[in-house]
Amino acid sequence: MRTLKYAILGLINRNSMTGYDLMKEFNTDLVNFWYASHSQIYPELKKLTKEGLITYTTVIQGEKMEKKLYSITDEGRSDFISWIREQDLLEPTPKDIFRLKTYFIESMDKSLMINHFNYQLVQRLEKLKKLENTMKDHPYAKKLGKIGSAKYGDYIVLKGAIMRERTYIQWLEECISEMENN
Amino acid sequence: MRTLKYAILGLINRNSMTGYDLMKEFNTDLVNFWYASHSQIYPELKKLTKEGLITYTTVIQGEKMEKKLYSITDEGRSDFISWIREQDLLEPTPKDIFRLKTYFIESMDKSLMINHFNYQLVQRLEKLKKLENTMKDHPYAKKLGKIGSAKYGDYIVLKGAIMRERTYIQWLEECISEMENN
DNA sequence: GTATACATGTAAAAAGTTACATGATTTT
DNA sequence: AAAATCATGTAACTTTTTACATGTATAC
Predict the structure, then answer these.
(1) What ranges do the domains of chain A cover?
(2) Looking at the whole model, is its pTM more than 0.90?
(3) Which residues in chain A touch residue B5, judged by CB atoms under 8 angstroms apart?
(4) A3-85: which CATH architecture?
(5) Which B-chain residues 36-65 have CB contacts (< 8 A) with chain A?
(6) What is the pLDDT of residues B3-32, one digit of tens each?
(7) Alpha carbon A34 to chain centroid distance?
């Protein structure tokens, strides 16, 4: 469905930016729901340029380093807007290797499975801590933003990521406790 | 990481089965954490056979319809066991188109965003109901299973899927209520 | 007899990952 | 001077999806 296309259009629609800037966005804010690497981004930018949905101007950084600053075209913007207006059917449930391994729990002994669960738990707690720190510094969480601004979307998905992470942790903890008491 | 390979090995390790049986598994139980279609399964079965991890016997169904009943080999089993013993690092956060759209909420007006959220909510409530019905009929939920059995893994991931779904719904509801009161 | 389920494959395209490849700029 | 970051690309491969393709068996 060319979702990467719309993720890029949406970002460039907010602000003109380079491929490198996009890459950073995909690695920070968007990492919680849409990751993309530079090897996917650069070819897509080329394609979108050819399709007339974005254009770029070459900017010189320092002495001679060239970078391409991309902007959205009217055509790009209206394509993006019609994408965002579409209602979406539920996607297939995301894949999860850990849940798959858990499903095959009969092939593990008790100590191994508790080990696996604890290892996941440590990592998820670490991840949650980072998300909560991001939230702590977020302007909307400090009541500085308002609904309808770009920062509101940012806030709302961050909140969702924290809820998702807490639930995963709760599941891990409940499983561990159940396994230890049986 | 060839996860599909291990999903198939794990299932065949439980019971000998055909490609069609596998397909049904991937579409029912496993759909909540690892989906695969028949066009992925059949080539993988061929590959695993060539690698000596599984073998098959041809069974005649009815008059002449041939089906291939796959079994795991010792080599396949030990490969599977070493996979299941591995500790896993956290995977990248799964992609989610709806969260991506939500992130770009500044490009929607209030009624459109509430509409989108409600549409998701209806679908997720439906999905949750199905999961809860599956749980209701589950032997472990009726205290008929015990930890360590294959059904326990089944139960534990189903429980996780329900928790995940409830949290998604809670997120949707909180967002709707916040949007309606602002 | 007809519809649904059983049963197995391949082909082409799209999406995503990992590795290869290069060079400039800024910070320490 | 070295390390980190900025900056942009391609190649090869893996994974996944969608479409094409065919035929049998069973339940109603």
Answers:
(1) 3-85, 97-180
(2) yes
(3) none
(4) Orthogonal Bundle (1.10)
(5) none
(6) 999 999 999 999 999 999 999 999 999 999
(7) 4
